[in-house]
């Protein structure tokens, strides 16, 4: 089992526990008890689809690489994985931050409770960590660090 496959399985497993976290807020349990089961099934379906398509994409790439090797041809640069870059990490950080703000606003507008909207802090902290990662660990365009 590859490291990527293990990471995907861990991510899927952690997503399965997300609806159960709603039970930690006692005043909110009565409102979400019925929706939690539907949410859990939805999360399971999304994680399963993502794992399936990720696995199929990797299998297709391996088969394509094997064909290039069998024919003795050079691999096209477009098929090789891109090295991690600061721009990609900044794009991820912006996406997570905007998603966190959007989810928080949607939860607050729909429920009117700040403790429900606080769940979006998970996405906001992930966005902040990605910003920090981009500035600390990836060189900028001038060749220096951060």
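^ Assign residues to that structure.
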């Amino acid at each position: 089992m590859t490291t990527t496959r293990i990471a995907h399985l861990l991510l899927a497993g952690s997503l399965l526990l997300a609806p159960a976290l709603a039970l930690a807020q006692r005043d909110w349990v009565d409102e979400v008890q019925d929706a939690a089961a539907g949410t859990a099934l939805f999360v399971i379906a999304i994680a399963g689809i993502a794992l399936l398509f990720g696995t199929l994409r990797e299998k297709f790439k391996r088969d394509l690489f094997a064909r290039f090797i069998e024919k003795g041809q050079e691999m096209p640069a477009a098929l090789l994985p891109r090295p991690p870059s600061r721009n990609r990490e900044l794009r991820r950080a912006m996406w997570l931050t905007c998603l966190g703000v959007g989810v928080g606003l949607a939860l607050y507008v729909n429920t009117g409770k700040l403790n429900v909207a606080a769940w979006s802090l998970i996405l906001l902290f992930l966005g902040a960590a990605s910003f920090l990662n981009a500035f600390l660990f990836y060189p900028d365009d001038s060749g220096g660090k951060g």
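Residues 38 and 74 are 49 Å apart (CA to CA).
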